[in-house]
């Protein structure tokens, strides 16, 4: 990814949840390329997290460490923040990227599905922001992750549960920006369109992928690196807050 050499995140400390793969990993690398120290949170795949840390360190511009924590739980959130503060004494950028996308329409959603999805996609980011905010100074950034499907003109019934969580994220972004804005903390969200991660490709036929790509005026699916550019932009902004930036190549 091309970067502007006049821009820097040197001396900044960033937490990225779900950062061992996909958009989270690409964002960690992009921030580190500008000099940030990145805390790569993961829940289960230790090898992928170690590989992400190694990729960052290979850049020679930023530092990285991995922290295992289940950010769907309060104890996991608190552990992630504590380990970061113990190591670096502050948090400048918080990217709440971890999430799941179960395909569940109304009929097929169980209480367990609902609780699990809201725990990781909504409760985790909410209380992570609560735990991190006391350690963030004026000019710091909280960046949530939504989805372009919240604004798409058509959406399949199977996205009901997932979109419900992302609707909550967009309201958290809007109102939390007023709340934490009093401390000078900027709160935004990135809403990716279809993005070529391992999770996205899993279970999809070539025909389905071509159909999805056809929804975009550019006729293709975005890359994790392109979504990471949006996180980098928001992590450097000084006057953008309360916004949902839809990174989708013009799809919606």
UniProtKB/TrEMBL annotation:
The keyword ATP-binding does not apply. SUPFAM superfamilies: NAD(P)-binding Rossmann-fold domains. It comes from the Eukaryota. It holds the Pfam family adh_short_C2. InterPro entries: NAD(P)-bd_dom_sf (IPR036291), Sc_DH/Rdtase_CS (IPR020904), SDR_fam (IPR002347). The keyword NADP applies. GO terms for molecular function: oxidoreductase activity, acting on CH-OH group of donors. Gene3D superfamilies: NAD(P)-binding Rossmann-like Domain. Keywords: NADP, Oxidoreductase. Belongs to the short-chain dehydrogenases/reductases (SDR) family. This is NAD(P)-binding protein. It comes from Xylaria grammica.
